[in-house]
Design brief:
118 residues
Length: 118
C-alpha cells in the first residue's frame, strides 16, 4: 500500500499554517490564553514552535507523502513533552495541557489524513 493522502488537498497543512501564523503573529496573546508567564524565554519558545509549525505545514502542503509519518511522530513527541511539562511544572500546567491537546489533535488528524487510519 502506498503512502497517499486520503484527501485531495492538504487540509492539515493549511490548518497548521494558520496555527503557525497565530504563534508567530501573536505570541503574547497565545501565552495569555495559555495562562503562561510572559517572559522573554516563553516568547522565544512560542516563536520557535511557530517556525516549526510553518516548516511542517510547508512539507504537508507540498504533499510529500513519505514525510507524513515523521510529522505525526513530531506532533506525538511534542504532545508528550507538553503533557510532561503540565504534570511537572504547576506554573506551566495550563499551557502544557493546551499545547499537548493541540499537538495530539495534529498527530491524530495527520495520522488519519496520511492514511495510517486505514
Amino acid at each position: 500500500m502506498s503512502d497517499t493522502r486520503t484527501l485531495s488537498y492538504p487540509t492539515i497543512g493549511l490548518i497548521r499554517a494558520g496555527w503557525a501564523c497565530v504563534l508567530l503573529g501573536s505570541p503574547r496573546r497565545v501565552l495569555k490564553l495559555y495562562g503562561a508567564p510572559q517572559e522573554s524565554s516563553s516568547l522565544k519558545v512560542i516563536r520557535i514552535l511557530g517556525v516549526r509549525h510553518a516548516l511542517q505545514a510547508g512539507v504537508e502542503i507540498a504533499g510529500w507523502p513519505r514525510w507524513w509519518r515523521a510529522g505525526v511522530l513530531v506532533d506525538f513527541a511534542h504532545g508528550l513533552s507538553a503533557f510532561g511539562l503540565a504534570a511537572t511544572a504547576p506554573r506551566w500546567r495550563r499551557g502544557g495541557l493546551a499545547e499537548g491537546s493541540i499537538a495530539a489533535a495534529f498527530a491524530t488528524f495527520g495520522y488519519v489524513e496520511g492514511g495510517g487510519g486505514r
